[in-house]
Design brief:
The chain is α/β, with parallel strands linked by helices. The protein folds into two domains: about 290 residues, Mur-like, catalytic domain (UDP-N-acetylmuramoyl-L-alanine:D-glutamate ligase), CATH 3.40.1190.10; about 140 residues, Alpha-Beta Complex (Protein-Tyrosine Phosphatase, Chain A), CATH 3.90.190. The protein has 15 helices and 17 strands. The strands form three sheets. It has an eight-stranded mixed sheet, with helices on both faces. A six-stranded mixed sheet has the order 12-13-17-14-15-16, sandwiched between helices. A three-stranded antiparallel sheet has the order 9-10-11. The protein is globular, with a radius of gyration of 21 Å.
Length: about 450
């Protein structure tokens, strides 16, 4: 994809805007842009997925369930390995050529908006508008949108979503969202619109309080995990897990989900309830169980305990905050039986690095610290300095370049281990960028 000169030119133009990882908290620029485009975001019903962890997986699952129900679906996720992968129509990311076309569709309006505001449109704001245009052009019959950051002022929030999903909320992006879980939840609850149906994951009390207050304020209907829907049974299966799910009105048994970990089962329950809510299913009308099974079976969640190599097993996981790393550690314990697991870790400097390392430590034998390709990545030497008090100096290995770090981790995983190669493995984690870099090294294009 990077070899396509027109695609790369567009990517470079986007990167020259305010960095994708930075935020200017306002909906005004995005609202002006979509107004100029003719409001393409109002042409289809929307499931809007916010929260701290699990947003991308829940978005992907909901999209596949809607497709199994016979709808043409638009999906917007962030971030992904390639910018064009963020926009998907009918289950497939737009091609590089289509991505270029979408950019040129919106480009004439960018200068207009840029001239009207002190801050230029950010790269993410432009991408969001491109997704809206792609969905309107397709056209799609429903869209599932992942919030970029926060909620109330995230640029995806120009939509009027019929269904809002809030995955588990914890501390992350405190620089922009607030220093407490309650402040962060208040911001994320901003995606709840008047009269919407809210699909609410299990939340800490300090997060639930402002969310429920927002629902009462705008007259939204709440469906709560463990009350109106949830996971009834979960069993580890080859390549994933087998679930029994309670939907908003009916139970769905023998559901195979090709993703690992109890947290993915919870995401599946959220996605099911959201799709039921959008399609009007409930106590009086259930969805076809076989279509539900087909939708979940078709779901792919790259970079979430994704196996990219065997003998030794190499897993990629994009956990990037303490809550996400805790979920990954729990999934490794619940769904895998490694006798020796070595982690390769690179983390952004603005994250709670010590908190992430503390949650990773109990499930890995050793850790190889390195640096990914992002300018935000913590220098490997600094990361090693934070890792040594957590793991002990003898369990921490400093390898500055990611390819060398992966090779070192494989050697360490295999060292002095008797028995079949299935007993050892490598986990590459700490950041979406770390996973993206590793995928480019370890997989063929298109995988």
């Amino acid at each position: 994809m990077a070899a396509d000169p027109e695609y790369q030119k567009v990517v470079d133009e986007l990167h020259r805007r305010w960095p994708d990882a930075q935020v200017v908290p306002s909906l005004d620029r995005e609202q002006r842009l979509v107004d100029l485009l003719g409001s393409p975001h109002h042409g289809y019903p929307v499931i809007h997925v916010g929260g701290t962890n699990g947003k991308s997986s829940t978005t992907r699952m909901a999209g596949e369930l809607l497709r199994a129900a016979g709808l043409r679906v638009g999906r917007f996720t962030s971030p992904e390995d390639q910018l064009s992968d963020r926009i998907a129509v009918d289950g497939a990311p737009v091609s590089p050529e289509r991505f270029v076309e979408l950019y040129h569709e919106v480009a004439p309006y960018l200068a207009v908006v840029d001239a009207e505001f002190p801050q230029r449109l950010t790269a993410f704001e432009v991408l969001t508008a491109m997704a809206f245009a792609a969905f309107a052009d397709a056209p799609v019959e429903a869209a599932v949108l992942e919030v970029g950051m926060g909620g109330a002022w995230d640029c995806t929030n120009v939509v009027r979503a019929e269904v809002a999903v809030l995955t588990p909320i914890g501390l992350d992006h405190q620089r922009y969202l607030g220093d407490t879980v309650e402040e962060i939840a208040t911001e994320k609850a901003g995606i709840i619109k008047p009269g919407a149906i809210v699909v609410l994951a299990r939340q800490p009390v300090e997060a639930a309080r402002p969310i429920l207050a927002r629902c009462a304020e705008v007259g939204a209907t709440v469906a709560r995990q463990d009350a109106e829907f949830g996971v009834l049974q979960r069993a580890v299966a080859v390549g994933g897990q087998l679930l029994a799910l309670q939907g908003l009105g009916e139970r769905y048994d023998e559901v195979f989900l090709p993703a690992h970990g109890p947290y993915q089962a919870q995401n599946a329950a959220l996605a099911l309830a959201a799709v039921e809510a959008l399609l009007g299913a409930g106590a009086q009308r259930r969805l076809d169980p076989e279509l539900i099974r087909q939708g979940f079976a078709a779901t792919r969640v790259p970079g979430r305990l994704e196996r990219v190599r065997s003998a030794p097993t190499v897993l990629l996981d994009a956990a990037h905050n303490p809550a996400g790393m805790a979920a990954t550690a729990a999934a490794l314990t619940a769904d895998f039986a490694f006798r020796r697991l070595v982690a390769v870790v690179s983390i952004a400097a603005d994250k709670d690095v010590a908190g992430m390392l503390e949650r990773l430590e109990p499930v890995v034998a050793e850790v190889v610290v390195t640096r990914n390709s992002s300018a935000r990545a913590m220098p490997a030497g600094q990361l090693a300095g934070l890792a040594r008090p957590v793991f002990g100096a003898d369990r921490v290995h400093l390898v500055p370049e990611l390819p060398d770090a992966i090779e070192r981790a494989v050697t360490l995983a295999e060292a002095d281990l008797d028995g079949p190669p299935s007993g050892f493995g490598v986990l590459i984690t700490g950041s979406v960028v770390t996973v993206a870099d590793a995928r480019r090294l370890l997989t063929r294009p298109g995988e």
